[in-house]
Fold this protein.
Amino acid sequence: MSEHLPSVLFVCVHNAGRSQMAAAFLAHLAGGAVEVRSAGSAPADAVNPAAVEAMAEVGVDMSASRPKPLTDDAVRASDVVITMGCGDTCPVFPGKRYLDWRLDDPAGQGVAAVRPIRDAIEQLVRGLLAELGVVVAP
């Protein structure tokens, strides 16, 4: 019998900054121990270049990431749904755990303004991994 991997979906409006950074950190730190998704209620055309640069500074490559639309299927397939400013546009299904991470939106910001958002996301992701019982290197 196969072991169920916890599944996490990160959602923000454009899926171009916060949710992309959170998904990238979770995938990077969990090393395959968590299924990771991200999506946007109104996806942008591309990931925020300042977010890509800020993540590269800490050794996480997001250069191939692309914004994806939020679907009911993505929510249904996830154990934990973490919203970041998408408000009421996120579908709610029974039996899912919902968290709302209040973070500044990096849209239109330079890399200097994105760094503190990135660092806050990393701490939240590390806390989530601890709650999920996933051990990561410091």
Q: What stands out?
A: Residues 8-128 form a domain with the Rossmann fold fold (CATH 3.40.50.2300). Helices lie at 18-30, 49-57, 72-76, 111-132. The longest helix spans residues 111-132.
